Amino acid sequence: MGKELRYQLEKCVGCSLCMVGCPWEAISKGPIVEVAAGRIEEAPLVNVELEKCTFCGLCVSACLFNSFSMLLDSTTLEDFSKVAGEHRVDEDKCIPCFLCERICPREAIKAKVEIPRKDELVVYEAGGKPEEAEGKIVFEEDKCCYCGLCEALCEAFEIFWEKPKPPEFKPAIGLRIDEEKCDYCGLCEKICPTEALKVECEHAPPRKVQEAEIRGGIEIDQEKCVDCGICAAFCPVEAIEVKKPLEGKVHIVKLEKCDPTGCKNCFNICPVDAIYPVKGAEKIRVLEDFCIFCGACENACPEEVLKVERLSLNLKDVGPSKPWRESRNRYLLRLIGRKVEPALLEPAYPRQVRLEIEVQKPPEEEAPPEWEVDRQAKKLLEEKLGKLAEGLGEKTFRATFELGKLDKLLGKVKG
Q: H helices of 282-374, where?
């Protein structure tokens, strides 16, 4: 039977949930600090010792990022309970718009929006021209969520997009309205979900204005989504509900050692952009409403400034029930600091059974011949092996070795 445990480096964030979940200590930390700081690239954030692995699959169950998968005879096993969040989209409420796609830090949402252009909806009678229309349009920036519908509808709008940043996660820095292209038809006001636009038409040539019918929906990539809840928090029509995979607290325990201007490890490593710098003595702030308490920031901090405490988890059962599911789920409680004791089962038969076992002695084997080794050569070999073992104990040295950079390995041994 062919068993294979796969680890996908590109999905891993170095959160250590797999390490806590592994009962055999087959997974250990890699050079997470160095990778977060940008000093090492393409290095594995965790080390997997396959000789210790028993193929139990608890790492698959614990990982929020789908970094681990298990294959049996080339078939992926998917019937494990998983620590996972939940999300639901109310299609009756969803407009849809482009906001959730633009603010998702995991790029897990794809918005498919079909909206006709204004030129197709506003038809002027013979001789009438759009530029003859007169009126005014008011944009209230404080109300705007930058859903992108007005820009998709009418060429009079231009949104200046940028990468969303905490804590507001605004996907744009502003909106410009070219009133020379506006004919004050009022369609933008009708489709705006936050009432940020007000249009007053004072005069217009005879025309027919059809309603803008918006169709479509959103698709969520389950492989990327970690149910942080950012999309739900900023949805202008409250069409998304999210339950996070883990709940907890992030404690800042050594604030005096934090240097957010020189070190940006926690900002770089956070998979949902839930940490950001602030001015003054506070230095950094964690958005616990969106934090998934994975622990990547704690592992990436070189000064141990952060401590992640997990208080509860959400387990999602996948596939048909198995006899061992309850035991696996109990063991996963280690992720939230619970001490898991072995379950005591009632004996199936309340009686004692005595077995007489005859101990077989193994056959005596001849001792292998002893080879004479020159003492000086033996001493030199032991010194070289000692340096090699010492080097492999260092995270950065081991990472370069696993990446195939043998020149540094030889330098360590020769040195």
A: 296-300, 325-331
